[in-house]
Design goal:
The complex is a heterodimer of chains A (about 450) and B (about 250). With about 450 residues, chain A is of the alpha/beta class. Chain A is built from seven helices and 21 strands. Classes of the chains: A alpha/beta (about 450), B alpha/beta (about 250).
Chain lengths: ~450, ~250
């Protein structure tokens, strides 16, 4: 266990946590540490972080726990992730406060620590802890391979502590609508920095649904920092659905990088709902490497208070005949701030490519703010691209119409907000997940 | 004969963006009566309907309006509706993403709650909605669509009439209910409206052609110009206006 204050990173010369049996892992950690040190913390001058200030994140003293088998046992009475669940024999969500109305393959993280070594799987699906994956060695083909760690300071920080996470591999024998749930339960008891790194590999023709759920069972004002990296490698004609619901405690920090590579005919369908945290950033980088690779990157964020919720995307069309769709909607109240930075890059050879992007924000108060930075970098001819951004209040004519039929103002607003967000949620092709998300 | 007034408007003055539109308007409508307000374009007929419904931006600067003796002007938009005021709008707004059925269920149950009646469960509501819809030629497919989205002019007005049928107002205002309708569509709407004339429910029909009044026959016709009523008479006044036009009324005032 060690303590770090991110703003003092310059003093962070010696890392005593980097004690591992595995030389390859030690190298990755050291690379991560170096990449973090050389980048430093983002400032308002850092282009990729222009609108999102770190605020308290850099000042807090966070505890970083390193692997300790004893800590696998969860002491929170509210958390039901005990015993039999550790063997993975139960498929239902085990945390009673957050029961999901559908069946899942379950992977539990408690305070950023993986809760089991063995998982219930089936033919074509393999889930192993990173620890086991390090021993096996295959995972090193993938770690840090889909993005440049020197451009992502928090992913670099994550790599410096690389330890927690899973490697999920699916092949064409796996074709199950039942989501693989990555359940991230925080107790919020101490100011903890949790670094979790997951690798998802979909072999040719595989189909799988990954659902991430982040929530806190502790005090509303709990301060902790979940720093997440997910790398997706989507093979030929594979179809991966990636859904995420972020309901962190409202003083917590949440920064996630999703880095995705899609091969020929592969499809990455994603949706992210951000509802919690004081500072939350959902960053998605997709590389469409081969023809007919497709990506859908959709998101909804809703917040009040003083929160900042950031959605950043970077879709790289490297190959011809690739397609991407982005629809992101935000609902911002109080003094909160929404940030959307969306980039579509089309390489010189990527002809007959389609890239669409739309961001819409509803501002519910005078002090709510939204900053939008769409970027199109088009180096090829014969492409179809569009981007758009709109922000405004609820439509007064629609509100009047509903109220004139006897519907109360608050209820009318709720109906209109739901209609606004449902347009995005309806793009989720997994009906059970879509229905659940609508109920949140 | 003791008649009960439903709507009592006294010396009403109202403005939109600093422009006085309604000037000293007086009008009383009793139970069971259908009044028509006719007038030239731009006279402020639609303004009157929005003022009565309490729309934002329509500011009352004087006078009073009572609905069954209650001060209407003090109520919020939804309270007016719950007290029994209903407006068939000239241009019903489209609301993508809000299914017609769930919108109407909220509306019906909010009004029932206000009246102290038990709320309808989904089954009861759907049954009632389908029965009333059938009378107006509104099929289930239309009810599944988002509010007014992709509806033709006629479908929108039929949907407005359906809402009136299920919300059961005691004072209904029809603002240019025939605009954009062909003769067949107008007949359907008029039939729907007439079937809701029950000797108690009061109606105010705003129109600038007498065409609609051949199908919804009013008890009283008012001529509205320059912000108030300049002449009132029987249904024959509508006929007269059709021949003479509004010029004389506008001129008189000027």
């Amino acid at each position: 266990m060690s303590k770090i204050v991110l703003k003092n990173y310059a003093d962070w010369q010696q890392d005593d946590t980097n004690t591992t049996f595995c030389p390859k892992l030690a190298i990755l950690r050291e690379k991560g540490r170096q990449a973090f040190l050389s980048q430093g913390l983002p400032t308002p001058k850092t282009e990729a972080w222009k609108y999102t200030k770190l605020r308290n994140l850099s000042d807090e003293e966070f505890v970083v726990e390193s692997d300790d088998k004893n800590s696998f046992h969860c002491h929170d009475e509210k958390c039901h992730c005990h015993d039999e669940h550790e063997t993975g024999s139960h498929e239902h969500c085990c945390c009673h406060e957050n029961c999901l109305p559908f069946e899942v393959y379950e992977v539990n993280f408690c305070n950023g620590k993986l809760k089991a070594d063995h998982f219930h799987t089936t033919q074509g699906l393999s889930i192993v802890s990173l620890t086991d994956a390090f021993e096996n060695g295959d995972v090193f083909k993938y770690l840090n391979k889909s993005f440049d760690i020197n451009n992502f300071p928090f992913a670099a920080l994550n790599s410096a502590y690389l330890e927690q996470g899973v490697m999920i591999a699916v092949d064409k024998n796996f074709n199950d609508d039942k989501p693989i749930l990555l359940n991230f339960h925080s107790h919020g008891d101490i100011k903890r920095l949790s670094n979790v790194y997951n690798v998802i590999v979909a072999e040719s023709g595989a189909r799988a649904t990954i659902l991430e759920h982040y929530y806190c069972s502790g005090a509303e004002k709990s301060v902790y920092f979940n720093n997440i990296v997910n790398e997706f490698f989507i093979g030929r004609d594979a179809y991966i659905r990636h859904y995420k619901v972020q309901q962190e405690a409202f003083k917590a920090f949440h920064i996630a990088l999703n880095s995705v590579q899609v091969k020929q005919g592969g499809h990455y369908e994603s949706f992210c709902l951000q509802l919690g945290a004081d500072l939350s950033r959902q960053e998605t980088q997709v590389v469409l490497k081969e023809p007919h690779a497709e990506a859908e990157v959709n998101a909804v964020y809703k917040m009040n208070g003083w929160a900042t919720l950031d959605t950043t995307t970077d879709i790289k069309h490297i190959s011809k005949e690739t397609v991407s769709h982005q629809l992101v909607k935000g609902i911002i109240g109080g003094k909160a701030k929404g940030v959307f930075q969306g980039k579509i890059h089309i390489a010189p050879d990527a002809v007959k490519t389609e890239g669409y992007q739309l961001h819409k924000a509803l501002l519910l108060s005078d002090e709510a703010e939204v900053d939008v930075k769409p970027e199109l970098e088009i180096f090829a001819d014969d492409v179809k691209c569009s981007h758009g951004a709109a922000s405004g209040e609820l439509d007064k004519e629609q509100l009047f119409y509903l109220q004139s039929r006897g519907i109360g103002e608050d209820e009318a607003k709720t109906l209109l907000i739901k209609a606004f967000t449902d347009e995005v949620i309806n793009k989720i092709s997994c009906t059970a997940v879509a229905e659940w998300i609508k109920s949140l | 004969m003791n008649r009960t007034p439903v709507l009592e408007i006294e010396n009403l003055c109202a403005r939109v963006h600093d422009k006085e539109i309604i000037k000293n308007l007086n009008l009383t409508i009793y139970e069971g009566e259908v009044h028509a307000i006719m007038g030239p374009n731009g006279a402020g007929k639609s303004t009157l309907s929005y003022v009565l419904c309490g729309k934002e931006g329509y500011e009352v600067t004087g006078g009073s309006v009572k609905l069954y003796g209650k001060d209407l002007l003090k109520m919020s938009v939804e309270e007016r509706a719950r007290e029994g005021l209903f407006l068939i709008m000239q241009y019903p707004v489209e609301i993508p993403g809000v299914p017609t059925t769930s919108f109407l269920k909220y509306a019906v149950n909010d009004i029932r709650k206000h009246r102290g009646e038990p709320e309808l469960d989904t089954m009861e509501f759907i049954k009632m909605l389908r029965e009333e819809g059938k009378k107006l030629g509104i099929d289930n497919e239309m009810l599944k669509r988002p509010v007014n989205v992709g509806f033709s002019g006629g479908e929108k007005k039929r949907m407005e009439t359906l809402q009136m049928a299920i919300l059961k107002p005691n004072m209904a205002i029809l603002d240019e209910a025939d605009s954009g309708l062909d003769i067949d569509a107008m007949k359907v709407v008029a039939q729907g409206v007439n079937s809701l004339r029950d000797g108690k429910r009061a109606m105010l029909v705003i129109t600038h052609y007498k065409r609609l009044l051949e199908y919804i026959v009013p008890d009283v016709v008012h001529v509205f110009a320059n912000g108030h009523i300049v002449k009132s008479g029987s249904k024959d006044l509508a006929e007269e206006l059709e021949n003479t036009g509004y010029a004389e009324f506008v001129k008189d005032i000027a």
